[in-house]
From TrEMBL:
It holds the Pfam family Sigma54_activat. It comes from Mesobacillus subterraneus. One of its GO terms (biological process) is regulation of DNA-templated transcription. SMART domains: AAA (SM00382), PAS (SM00091). PROSITE patterns: PAS, PTS_HPR_DOM, SIGMA54_INTERACT_1, SIGMA54_INTERACT_2, SIGMA54_INTERACT_3, SIGMA54_INTERACT_4. Residues 1-94 form the HPr domain. This is HTH-type transcriptional regulatory protein TyrR. Residues 359-588 form the Sigma-54 factor interaction domain. The lineage of its organism: Bacteria, Bacillati, Bacillota, Bacilli, Bacillales. Keywords: Aromatic hydrocarbons catabolism, ATP-binding, Coiled coil, DNA-binding, Nucleotide-binding, Transcription, Transcription regulation. Residues 107-152, 224-259 form the PAS domain.
């Protein structure tokens, strides 16, 4: 870079005419406009490009002032000399020229000041789309320095300037909205003609982001207001808004109809009374006013203060019809009661001891039974567990023992059905040596072994009447006598019995002693069959999948689509034991991470399909009659509308309405109901 300070010799200094002739001289000498960009003039600390007429003039350099010429290295010595000579040439101008210069100067300074200070951005390009002028506002809005804009092609430095289009079409374009950085601007673009020839174009643009923001806020405000009006008009309450004098500013339609004749001035005061109004303004607390009777109807009056920055600005007064409030209160009370009931039920269920955690299932009937079992586990009372085979009776018996204070003592299980009749007595109560052939030494029975612990008498219904009598004695006296002995042995044994038989039917048939039944059935615990709690199937399947993964070293994570549904459709006569075996088999057969329908036994996976066969006779019936036959047949197999609908490929709603139409509700799932 090369700098040089020179004294300006021209009469009138660097005025418009001389600046213009300097630029004309430079443009005639140098073909490359961009080269000229590398020459600047500095005056009183302000540096401007040598080809920017308005900027040059705005320096207001007078004759005799010193200016600094700054040349980049690429400027040739000849050009430098020409420029220096231009400034140091002190050719005297004539009176008329001087006066012309003064007028031109005055005019251009005014124009320059006006354009520079206008709040809108302005960019001027010449016919080659080279930027020849930018004002301060444009520099600010574009966030690019004037130096980086001037003498550059507009489409290069301001890609969205679109002045090229104006130069091509010669057409003006007004008020186009455009995004600039994050601001919205409104741009006017116009061509500049001289003597009918297009010599450039100008763009004037204005930042309208604030306007846009205000506009969108106004729009939102208007929408909100409309929404609020809609809400206030659609509530059944009667609502009024007042100012701090109590004068009505707004009332919803309902209030307007109800109190149309009431004076709007001091409306709130008239409605709630002077004392209540004064209290509201002073204390600024919401309160319920008395019940008001208007046109023979009772209303509850609620008053809320409107506070802005803690200052009282008015009130919201609402009237609610007393009948509605009363019915709501009744509903609320009923709901509270129901919630409390559900809470109690839930807490019952949630409070099961840890020893019950191995029993999977959350269905209501099971949880009710487990809650009872859990509660009685702490007592010594005899428990009778009933339920079909495989419903978990032994599991529950063990859980009762584990959560009792006998848990560190023996739990002795006796399966009464597998012990031969002639041995059952000695098995239960023990025998003395020589009591019968083969009794070569004294042996303790299961009751003695269970002393201080629990004895679990499984399949109690299979005991013969003789043993039943002996058992009754143990239950009454808490003591036994060994077979062949005459010594009574006192015992402290907790008895849990279980059966899958119907003991009351056996009593009727005199196969089970009534007195024993009542001794056993002190605390009955019934375990529901799996088909009555199918909601537990997914939980159980998950549990067994994980269990057999561990046991068989598998890592099964998923179920094929239809797998769980297939299990849900089956009626599980063998209950959880059957389900457990089914899952063990599917886990064992699967070769990857999925349990497949094909690995289910056929009678489970094919159920839904194969049972739907209807026998048609030769007589042709109406379509409706056939339809009834189909529903009559299918409904037997499915315990719910949902499963029936799935099997028939119809909606739940259609299945329910057809069964109702043909009066077949009662046969739904009958095939698998407990007998
Ligand atoms: N709710 C359950 N959660 C997890 N496993 C269960 C559940 N119920 C039963 N089982 C399992 O099912 C199988 C059968 O259970 P259990 O032997 O307790 O049934 P049961 O009613 O005593 O049968 P049975 O009358 O034939 O003796 C067992 O392997 C048991 O672990």
């Amino acid at each position: 870079m090369h700098e040089m300070i020179i004294q300006v010799q021209q009469k009138n200094g660097l005025h418009v005419r001389s600046a213009a002739s300097l630029i004309a001289m430079l443009q005639n000498t140098v073909n490359d406009d961009l080269k000229l960009k590398n020459i600047n003039i500095e005056y009183k600390g302000v540096s401007v490009g040598i080809t920017n007429l308005l900027s040059l003039v705005s320096l207001k350099v007078k004759q005799g002032d010193y200016i600094k010429l700054i040349f980049e290295d690429i400027i040739s010595p000849e050009l430098k000399t020409k420029i220096i000579r231009f400034f140091t040439n002190n050719e005297q101008a004539g009176m008329q020229e001087l006066e012309t210069d003064r007028l031109l100067m005055e005019n251009s300074v005014v124009m320059q000041e006006a354009v520079s200070n206008m709040p809108n951005g302005m960019i001027v390009v010449n016919s080659k789309n080279i930027i020849t002028f930018v004002n301060d506002a444009a520099v600010r809005l574009l966030e690019v320095s004037a130096n980086d804009l001037l003498n550059r092609r507009a489409d290069k430095v301001i890609p969205h300037s679109r002045l090229q289009d104006i130069l091509q079409t010669g057409q003006t374009r007004f008020a186009e909205k455009q995004m600039l950085k994050n601001n919205t601007i409104l741009v006017n673009r116009a061509p500049i003609y001289l003597d009918g020839k297009l010599i450039g174009a100008v763009a004037i643009f204005q930042d309208i982001s604030d306007l846009e923001k205000i506009n969108s806020e106004l729009k939102k405000e208007r929408e909100l207001q409309e929404l609020l009006n809609l809400v206030l008009d659609s509530v059944t309450d009667y609502i009024t808004l007042t100012d701090n004098d109590g004068t009505c500013m707004y009332m919803n339609e309902q209030m307007d109809k109800l109190l149309d004749s009431m004076d709007r001035e001091r409306f709130a005061e008239n409605l709630i009374g002077k004392r209540a109004w004064t209290k509201l303004a002073a204390e600024k607390n919401a309160f319920y006013n008395d019940i008001k009777i208007i046109h023979n109807e009772s209303y509850v009056v609620k008053v809320n203060p409107i506070l802005i920055d803690s200052k009282f600005h008015g009130s919201v007064v609402s009237l609610s019809p007393w009948n509605e409030v009363k019915s709501l209160m009744n509903k609320l009370e009923a709901m509270e009661e129901r919630a409390k009931y559900l809470e109690d039920e839930l807490s019952k269920h949630l409070q099961l001891d840890d020893s019950f955690s191995s029993i999977i299932g959350r269905s209501g009937a099971l949880m009710d039974s487990l809650t009872i079992a859990n509660k009685v586990s702490k007592m010594v009372s005899t428990v009778l567990i009933t339920g079909e085979s495989g419903t978990g009776k032994e599991l529950v018996a063990r859980a009762i023992h584990e959560s009792s204070n006998r848990k560190n003592k023996p739990f002795i299980r006796v399966n009464c059905s597998v012990i031969p009749h002639n041995l059952i007595e000695s098995e239960l109560f023990g025998h003395e040596r020589g009591a019968f052939t083969g009794a070569d030494k004294t042996r303790q029975g299961k009751f003695e072994l269970a002393d201080k612990g629990t004895i679990f008498l499984d399949e109690i219904g299979t005991l013969n009447l003789e043993v039943q009598v002996k058992l009754l004695r143990v239950l009454q006296e808490r003591e036994i006598e060994r077979v062949g002995g005459n010594k009574t042995i006192s015992l402290d044994v907790r008895i849990i019995a279980a059966t899958n038989e119907d003991l009351s039917k056996m009593m009727d048939e005199k196969k089970f002693r009534e007195d024993l039944y009542y001794r056993l059935n002190v605390i009955p615990v019934h375990l529901p069959p799996l088909r009555n709690r199918k909601g537990d199937i997914p939980l159980l399947v998950d549990h067994f999948r994980k269990y057999y993964n561990r046991l068989l070293g598998k890592s099964i994570k998923h179920y094929e689509q239809g797998f769980l549904e297939g299990l849900g459709e089956y009626h599980w006569p063998g209950n959880i034991r059957e389900l457990q075996n089914t899952i063990e088999r599917a886990v064992a057969l699967s070769g990857d991470e999925m349990l497949y329908c094909r690995d289910l036994p056929q009678y489970i996976s094919n159920r839904g399909r194969k049972n739907l066969q209807v026998n048609f006779s030769d007589d042709i019936l109406t379509l409706e009659a056939y339809e009834k036959q189909i529903f009559e047949h299918a409904a037997h197999f499915y315990p719910s509308y949902n499963q029936l609908a799935k099997a028939l490929g119809i909606t739940h709603k259609t299945a329910a309405s057809k069964l109702r139409k043909y009066n077949l509700d009662h046969i739904l799932g009958r095939k698998y109901q407990p007998t």
